[in-house]
Each structure stands twice: as C-alpha cells, then as structure tokens.
Amino acid sequence: MIELHPDYIVDEDLNRRAVILPYSEWENIIEEMEELDDIRAYDEAKTKANETIPFEQAVKEIESGMVK
Q1: Do residues 6 and 20 lie in contact, with contact meaning Cβ atoms separated by under 8 Å?
Q2: Nearest to 25, CA basis, from 47, 7, 41
Q3: Helix (H, G, I), strand (E, B) or coil at 16
Q4: Is the dihedral of CA 23, 4, 21, 28 positive or negative?
C-alpha cells in the first residue's frame, strides 16, 4: 500500500476541491496504475479465444503501431 501525505485545497465553505501530493507519491500512484492496466490487459487477453499468430506477424504489427 502506498503511504500518502495529501494536502487539500478547500473552498470558502471548507469543501475539499483539490489534492496536492508530493511528486514522488504521485509517481508511485502512476506506476501502480500502469501495473494495474497491464494486469487488466493480461486478464482480458486470457479470456479471449486462444488465437495465435506467427511471431514475424506479431513483430510487424508492433512495429507498424497496430499493437501498443
């Protein structure tokens, strides 16, 4: 679990409107979100049909930008 030390920007009624985090904590959040995206993409790929393509075709698709 990431330990956060947020500061808040509040409006005149003291309602929280924004959060300020140390940059290093923000970087950790982004890294965790990217890892979660990778996990979700992996899980989605595992649930799809087991279609295989030749390695050379996969490389061509990646190089052409068809696959990210």
Answers
A1: yes
A2: 7
A3: strand
A4: positive
Classify 59 as helix, strand or coil: helix
Q: How many CA atoms lie within 13 A of 68 on its CB side?
A: 3
Residues 6 or more apart whose Cβ sits within 8 Å of residue 25: 2, 3, 4, 5
Q: Are 5 and 16 in contact (CB under 8 A)?
A: no
- pLDDT tens digit sequence for 39-63: 998 888 888 767 788 999 988 988 8
- The structure's pTM equals 0.61
